[in-house]
Amino acid sequence: MMYSSPLFLVSLLPLLALSAPQGSILPALSDLSTASPGPSTISATVTASSVPTVTSTLGSSTDTATLSGSAIAPADTSIANNPAIIEQLVLAAKAVDRFDIIPLDTSFKFDFDNPPEDTKSEGKGGRTVRADRKSFPPLIGTGASMALGFLGPCGFNTPHTHPRSSEINLVVQGSLETEFTLENGARTVRNTLATHQMTVFPQGALHTEFNPNCDDAIFVAGFASEDPGVQQVAQSYFGLGQDVVEAATGNDFTFEGKDVAEFRRLIPDNVALGVESCLKKCGIS
Asked: What is the pLDDT of residues 135-167, one digit of tens each?
């Protein structure tokens, strides 16, 4: 690597001091700070053995990281779903006081592959994992939260709403078909999202995501609330009284010979499998 500016090399002195043997390259480089201006060319070689190792203590564990790899400490989940900790964080007089309540650095890390208990919604078609103020208390005071959706072949995140936040939805693997409608009288917005494409679902909008392929899909959902909430439409609607459901449908409700009480038991857990054409294409029964 060739550089013609002695000032550039002088700026590298602190970094080179970490790896150079004492009395080797440093005196020669320090001379450049007093040398008269003029063209200068210096060639330098950095070997793998000279790359510095940085060791830092994080909470109760030690991480050793180098430029070639790292040992990564697991996320601490001891404060997840902890009412006492959550109350202290909510009542903290200042934002900086929350750092005394959460002393471990690894408590500020959330692992979607190994999440705390009571964070998943799982069905035959996949799962969603949410990081909100309850499952990830460091979010308290940030006004934000996140969820990841892991949809298997033909996986269907059934129609739902978020009563307290809009959602931005980014596909990071595979593709998704999405739909939403904001309110009565609004048109239904439909899109197919490829990897690294995003859409938005306004706050309270009825929306859904569907994986139309025979390979897995993954999406990231970001929310402008620590507690966006979620309400699955079918489960909520058919959870109402039978007389209410029948009145809303205009007659005695039956579906394939099933009345309301029987039909409730047929509603699949989210994430579900659908639609029929995709199931046939992928050989899923």
From this structure: 999 999 999 999 999 999 999 999 999 999 999
